[in-house]
Amino acid sequence: MKNHILYTLQLADNALIYGHRLGEWCGHGPVLEQDIALTNISLDYIGQSRSFYQHAANLFNELPEAEKLELFQSVALEEKIKKAEKLDEDDFAYLRDGWDYRNIMLTEQPNGDWAVTVARAFFFDVFQALYYTQLLKSKDLQLAAIAEKSLKEVSYHKRWSAEWVIRLGDGTEESHAKMQEAIDNLWSFTGEMFTMTAEEKAMADTGIAMDTTLLRSKWMEEVTAIMDEATLKMPENNWMHDGGKNGRHSEHLGYILAELQFMQRAYPGMEW
Amino acid sequence: MSEQKANKNEWPLWEVFIRSKAGLDHKHVGSLHAIDEQMAIENARDVYTRRMEGVSIWVVESKHIHASDPHKAADMFEPANDKIYRHPTFYDLPDELTHM
Question: What ipTM was assigned to the predicted interfaces of this complex?
C-alpha cells in the first residue's frame, strides 16, 4: 500500500510541477493565442494532478495509523497526520517539502525562452502519451480511468509541441539554432523518464505500475522522427540526470514550491 | 517604428467559424492571429472551443473576405424595407400544415 501511494504521488507530482511551470507563462506568452494554448495545457496537467492526488489521499487514509508517519519527512504534513486528520489532495500539494516530491527533474526545469519551453514540452508530452497508453492496463482501475481521461488531453499536447519543434527547427537560422540548443541542453533530463524507483518496480510487479524502461525505444523512435522532420540533430551525449523520482531535485524545485505553497504555509487552511 | 513596419511583424489575421453541433451551420465567432492555416485551426481550438462550443472549425484569412461598404448601407439594404410582399406571409395554409 505504501508503494502504491508513493507511486501515485510520483504521477501526480509530474503533472503538478509541470503544470505549474507552464502556468508561469500566463500573461507572458509571445502572442495572445499561444498564451491561451499554454495555460490550457497547464490546466489540463493540474487537473490530472488533482485526480492522482485525490486517489493517493484515499489510499493514504486507509493506512493503519502507525504506518502513516513512515512515508514522509515533511514537518507540516507530519503535524497534520499526528492530529489524526484525514489528508486530501491539497495537503499533498501544499504541505510536502521538496525531498518528498517525486517528479522527474525535466518537469521542474525553468521555462527559458520559447524554444526551451517547446523542447521540454515535446520530450515530456511524447513520454506522457506513451505512458498513459500503458497505464490504461493498470490493475488499479482508478489509475486506468485517470489515464484514459488524460490521454486525450496529452495527445493534443503532443501535437502542439511537436508542431512547434518542427516550426522552429525547420524555420529560420535563428529559430533552428535556438531549438537545437534547447534540445541539447534538456537532453540529459530525459533519461529519468525510463528509470524506475524501488517503489515503482514493486508496483510494476503487481501490474499496477508500468515498466517504463520498455518505453524508451518507442519514445526515441517518435522523437527522432519529429527531429528529422525539424532538421534537428539528435544529441549524442548519453549521460543522464537521475534522482527526482527519489526526491533528489535540481535547485529549481525549491523556488517553485516556495511560490506554490506560500499561502498555505503562511495562512494554514486558508480558503478563497 | 512606422505603423507599416509594426504590421509586418504581426502574424496574419484569420476569421474563425465554429459549428456548434453536427447539422448546424458554421457561425462566425471572432478572429485571431496565426502563421498559417494549421496554426490558425489549433489556435482557434484553444481560444474559441475551451467550453465545448464546437465540433468543427473553419478558418479563413481575413484578407480574403470582401465586405460590403458600410457607407453604402442605405442604398444596399433600405430599398427592401417597404417590400413586405417579399415575405411569404400572404398564403392561406391548409390546417394540416403545422410546421410553417
Answer: 0.72
